[in-house]
Specification:
Layout lengths: L1 H50 L19 E15 L2 E13 L2 H8 L2 H13 L3 H4 L2 H23 L6 E9 L1
Antiparallel strand pairs: 1-2, 2-3
Helix pairs in contact: 3-5
Length: about 170
């Protein structure tokens, strides 16, 4: 009987040592977390306090440019162009709106609208019907129209004047 109790006593002693090591590991981990937290808090406090001192701060950089509200100019009436595709007569109707950010530039371009309309008619009439059936083809046409109008505006007024050409209606037949 004495032999049976001796191994049990050794197991209890080993189990007590395992619990002691586990407690020690937990205490070390908690202490490490507290030190890291204190370090982060102190850094945040000191950096926040440093930026609040205006007397030692360097001169402020100019603020980022503020985007002005969008200004829209609809080109009325809608563009209707025809072209041959695969031996058939095809038609395209496009309602176009110009988007800019400066009303003065848009007004300067408004005086040149006949030339803008001519440029867009020439662009629209030279398109391939099959490519315009896909969303990618329509987006490419819109980007081409934007670049053509920006080039023309730069040539006529000295400024690009518009940011985008928007299609508010596009019908293919």
């Amino acid at each position: 009987m004495a032999k049976k109790q001796a191994p049990a006593a050794e197991g209890a002693a080993a189990e007590g040592k395992g619990k002691g090591k586990l407690k020690l590991i937990i205490i070390i981990v908690v202490a490490l977390l507290l030190v890291i937290g204190a370090s982060v808090g102190a850094t945040w406090f000191l950096l926040g306090k440093k930026s609040a001192e205006p007397e030692h701060a360097a001169p402020a950089a100019p603020a980022a440019p503020v985007h002005l509200a969008a200004v829209y100019q609809a080109l009325v009436p809608a563009f209707v162009v025809n072209y041959n595709a695969e031996g058939r007569q095809r038609y395209m109707q496009v309602t176009v709106t110009l988007m800019g950010r400066d009303q003065g530039q848009m007004d300067a371009l408004k005086a040149q609208l006949p030339q803008v309309r001519n440029q867009l008619v020439m662009l629209f009439s030279g398109q391939d019907f099959n490519s315009l059936l896909t969303p990618v083809g329509k987006e490419m046409l819109r980007q081409q129209a934007t670049s053509k109008v920006q080039e023309l505006a730069k040539k006529l007024t000295g400024q690009t004047a518009i940011e985008q050409v928007l299609f508010t209606n596009l019908v293919l037949q």
